[in-house]
Amino acid sequence: MGRLTRRGFAATTAAMLSGLALAGDAAAAAHRPRDGHGGAPAAAAGALRGVWLATVANRDWPSRPGLTAAQQRAELIAHIDTAVARRLNAVIFQVRPTADAMWPSPYEPWSAYLTGTQGRNPGWDPLGTAVRAAHARGLELHAWFNPYRVAGHTDPTRLAPSHPARRHPEWVVRYGGKLYYNPGLPEVRRFVQDAMLDAVRKYPVDAVHFDDYFYPYPVAGEVFNDDAAYARYGRGFPNRAAWRRDNINRLVLETSTRIKAIRPGTQFGISPFGVWRNASTDPLGSATRAGVQTYDDLYADTRRWVRQHWIDYICPQLYWNIGFQAADYATLVPWWARVVRGTGTRLYVGEALYKAGDPAQPAAWRNPAELSRHLTFASRYAEVRGHAFFSAREVRADPIGAMARVVADHYRRPAPPPLNAKGELRAEG
């Protein structure tokens, strides 16, 4: 969550374009009706209004490890109640931040972010509580998983003795000061699916949600050592990059198929880094100059997942302001709208609420209206079916009133539930 993201972009910052008009690809725009109050265009029925609730490194919740069960529960419910107060309709709850669990899992240990000690039972069930509390308040609960991250350090002895990474050290790769499961091993791919889908079997979650970490973000001067796996399984591929993309494609397609078999109607959504490829790399790419491209650097062919409808929704992290030259929000929204058009995959836009008011960010982010401008711009594209805000801490604290401005301009009425995997409004109860 360093490098210009929650979750990252290593591009050179270009000069800001001041006074940029809210312009876009007018020919592709499909205008929606006004909201009846002379304000911004009304959101379509069933549009997502989501918030990410991050648990890695105690980012949003719990506020620190080692709180009592009652304190943890109270903080969690407070975040869900804040979502209701902000007229949102979905909470994207991180339940597997580092190959661990926020529910009683037979596959992986309890998360250290709960008690301070990985594997220690916190005395209650956070995921089960979150599902019940969200549904009781008319919200969806999307269970957010990180497939391959094992630890934010490189010392396996700091993991719980029962941790699968200790029992199977051959599954693990050290890279960039962290531990990762090796996506090139079929047994790893099967295990991480089993571990994640245990939650789908146990709880009526409305969606399985992946974030942007597949192969790790590049670290200068380091090599992700998957030589042995590539030698064993990479035959028939033109190069290692193609093999790595196939590994991630298999994870996505297999997970999608298994979700449908376990709990029909549960959605599968992914929130990738916002740039698939730059147009200078691929004519199908966006008119951006991003320092990271998911296809080439994370081996995540996000465009293919949409076009093949392997996922129910995609929520690209468009964490840049309107006018940011290297990756302009006003360039990427129409690009993604064209990608999803006619596919059956819904497009939600990931919004960088965490940047609002941050003096380290470009000047546009110090304007409380910047995020509201995003939603106004995106409303020109019928393919945009909602937004998700990173993250819950900022939704609650709202230091410069950016979220309040979004609510006043765009969320004047309580939210209907989002659409389910069949494109229907989710039934209450």
Task: Name the descriptors.
429 residues; alpha/beta; 12% strand; globular
SSE order, one letter for each helix or strand: EHEHHEEHEEHEHHEHHEHEHEHH
Oligomer classification: single chain
Give the overall form: globular
Number of helices: 13
Strand order, sheet with most strands: 1-2-3-7-8-9-10-11
Estimate the mean pLDDT confidence: 90
Sheet with most strands: 8 strands, parallel, barrel
Query: What distance separates the N and C termini?
Result: 36 Å
Secondary-structure-based class equals alpha/beta
Proportion of residues in helical segments: 25-40%
| Overall strand count | 11
The Rg value, from CA coordinates, equals 21 Å
Uncertain segments are 1-43
| Beta-strand content bin | 5-15%
What order do the helices and strands come in, and which of them pair?
Layout: E1 48-53, H1 69-85, E2 90-96, H2 112-115, H3 126-136, E3 140-145, E4 149-151, H4 164-167, E5 172-175, E6 178-181, H5 186-202, E7 207-210, H6 227-233, H7 240-262, E8 267-270, H8 294-298, H9 302-307, E9 313-314, H10 329-340, E10 346-351, H11 370-378, E11 384-390, H12 392-397, H13 402-410
Parallel strand pairs: 1-2, 1-11, 2-3, 3-7, 7-8, 8-9, 9-10, 10-11
Antiparallel strand pairs: 4-6, 5-6
